[in-house]
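User: Can you predict the 3D structure for this chain?
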Amino acid sequence: MAREPAEPRLEAVALHVLGLVGGHVGLLLEALTHARASADRYIEADIIVSLAELDEPAAPSWCHAALSVARQCGYRLLEGRALAARAAAAYRAGDPDTAWHSARLAAQCHAATGHQPGTERIEKLLAVLPTVTSPG
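Assistant: Here is the predicted structure, written as structure tokens:
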């Protein structure tokens, strides 16, 4: 049974959810293609942040892309999530200075937006990071 092509925005949202449920990079990349076709920058940024949050080798480059779109569009909540993803990726890569600074910036974004789940997650990460006293 053939299916009718969906509106790109709806297709992006559906594929995004399916990709998140299974941690499936391929579905997230397909969702990103549809988001870009729809020109909905929020959905695009949300999908890129989701890619950045995965424990994948490409996470640092997705973090950079996510921060770029979120900042360009003024999406502070997504900026906080992207910074948290960068902090986690840096921590996994053994870069505690970048992890700590990114986590602090994420905490500021989450505090500014009132994003309590993000605040709670970043506080857990900060608790395991060594305190950095000077810019690195």
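The chain has a mean pLDDT of 91. Residues 96-113 form the longest helix (18 residues).
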